[in-house]
Every structure is written in structure tokens, then in C-alpha cells.
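Second attempt. The first submission of Fe2OG dioxygenase domain-containing protein had a stray character pasted in from the spreadsheet, which I only caught after the job came back as garbage. Lesson logged: always re-copy from the clean sequence file. Corrected sequence (378 aa) follows.
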Amino acid sequence: MPTNRPNIPVLDLALLSDETKRPEFMALLRHALINIGFLYLKNSPVPQELIGRLVEYIPRLFDLPQDEKDKISMVNSPHFYGYSRFAEEYTEGETDHREHFDFATPYETRWKPGGPDHLGFFGPCQWLDEDLLPGFRETMETYLIGVHNAGVQLMSLIAEALQLPSDAFAKFYYSLDEIQSRAKVIKYPPQQESQASVLGNTPHFDTRFVTFVLQLPHPRPTLQVQLGGEWIDATPIPGTFVVNFGKSLEYVTQGLVKATYHRVLSPPAGSPPRYSVPLFQGTRLDMYLADEILDFPPEILKLKDLREDPIETNTAKDNEFYSQLAGDIIFLRGIMSHPDITEQFYPHLFKKYFPDGMPKQLMRTKTQLEGQRDMIGT
Ligand SMILES: O=C(O)CCC(=O)C(=O)O
Ligand SMILES: [Fe+2]
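This time the job returned cleanly.
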């Protein structure tokens, strides 16, 4: 049956090798940016062979003995990197039903006593013993750098699609010596037979500019995107990334680029676990986005008023949040997702953002973490 349901466009970078196809590519990219907020990216510069190697490692990473995974628990890391057991993370005040490792591009922390707290959110990540999964670290680091760079390249295409100079976004980026991109390697276990339907990841907007999600093959779509008042499946398409845009990009583009609300369902009972790797691209921390709002030709800007699915943007709440220093915006999201890590490493911020103490949902986790901390003697 034909439907008018919006769909997530597939952008094929191979089209760009033929100059005559460029306008078609740019028109579709513009539509994805303004009306959808999500796209599939095909033929990205990240080699399929590298992605294949990473995909092979992922189930083995989660199948490691629990005590080996716990050795790199996030509870050890002031930079919020490492392993989180099932249901230890928090999105929009709800517990997520997923287990994950947070890794990032190689980086030395720039935090110094007395310096801005947000610099503490960036630093080296924790890696497993090389013998447990030989080659994994090298593969993951190459992947992280490759996807970050693919994202930077995409930004110049985005600029072109919005009729800006191709370097219009360069001011938000430094080289990877100075900024860090982080990714989560996630396992969403299937839900129990008797359980009411649960969410693997609570509905949310991403905070930064761009997210690149690698979805491993799964028989059921579980990532869903809210469009036209409905939840639309972002069914995995082999050989593509799902790319979506965050609130910071929406903010600096005057609401022209759409950040779209999305969620992940727990895989149905009886199906295999679902794995994914979202990478949240790093941008500069030492700037105020409010001072960097981009200007567009009027005929481009008016396209946002023609969208069928209007967005709430530039609300007082958004404005207040995004008028902070870029580094604080990102760090604050980390704080809200991991109050337990915040309490441990940034007690003054815990007091400020959780004046009523540890959220109830996390009490169980906290007890677990304390046991763990005793075990590893920190
Ligand atoms: O696992 C996914 O497919 C997406 C997860 C996500 O949206 C997020 O972690 O921000
Ligand atoms: Fe997300």
C-alpha cells in the first residue's frame, strides 16, 4: 500500500565522482538536513574492510568474562570512558537497557587543577589487556579517527548543500590533537518473554553536531526516529552509516538543520542481541556557539518554514542551555547521564546538579559500583 510516511534518505557519496550528479546529491542532502534530521550515508571514506574487522570483534568484546570487563569500568575514569554494565546509564532521567563501552580518539587530558571542569571530560580512554582481544584497540582507534574525519568531510558537503562557503563549519573544528571524538560500542540484549516492552535507549535528541551510527545486522529494526508524529524505523542497511544531527548544529544553523528525536527499542524476546556503535563527533570546546550563529541566503532560510514537521527550536530553554561554553554543554550531558561517576570525580558538580542526591533508579547501581570499587581497590 503506498503511504506518505516520511522516509530516511540514502545519500551515496559515489554520486559525487560524477559532476552531473552533484545537484541531485545536494538536493537530497538539503532535504535530509532540513526536513528529516537523519540520513543513511553510503560509500563513506571509511574502508568497509576496517568496518568488517570491527564488526567481528564486537560480540567477542561483550562475551569476555564479567571481571575482565569490570576491570575497565567507567567508575575508574574521570573522563567517563570505559565499561558500563547493563542499565547503568541514564538518558533524560530514565535508565537505558543496554551494556556498553565508551572509547575515544587518542588524547591527553588538558585538565589542570583550577582549570575549567569540562576539560576533565576529555582524556585517555581505558583499554582491555591486549591479550584478551588482540588487535581490537588498534582497530577501534583507526575506526574512531576514520569516522571522525569522514564527519569533518561531510560538514563541507553540508555547507555546500546549504549554500554556504565550503569551509563555513571549519571554525567549529580543530585537528584531532586538540579535540576528541567519542563512541559507544553498545549491546542491546533482547527483552524477556514475560516483560512489557522496554526501551534500549530512551527518546532523546543528540547534543553535538553530527552522530555516525554503525548498526550491525539485525533481523528487526530497533532504532526509531520521530517524524510526522510517528516512530519511523531506521532499518539497518548494510554498507551504510546512519547519520543524524544534534541540537548544537540545529542551534548554530538558526534551526535550519533539524535535530530529530530518536529512541532504540529493546530487541523482541527470542531475537539476537542488537549491537551498534554511535560516534559523537567532537567539536571545539573553547567557544560560545551563541557568538557563532551562521548566516544563510534568505531563500535557504525560508525552507525551514516550509517543513511539514515543524521543530521546536530557539526555545528559551534551548537558548539558555546553548549559550554556555561549548565544552560545558557537552560535559553537562555526560554529568546528567552518569551521576555516579560525577559524584565520585566531581563532587561539587554532583551537589549542584543533583541537589536531592543520587536518583532512585541508580541506587542499585551505586551499591554495585561500591562493591566493584572495593574489589579493584580504588
Ligand atoms: O544505538 C543506536 O542505534 C543509537 C543510540 C543513540 O541514539 C545514542 O546513543 O545517542
Ligand atoms: Fe542518539
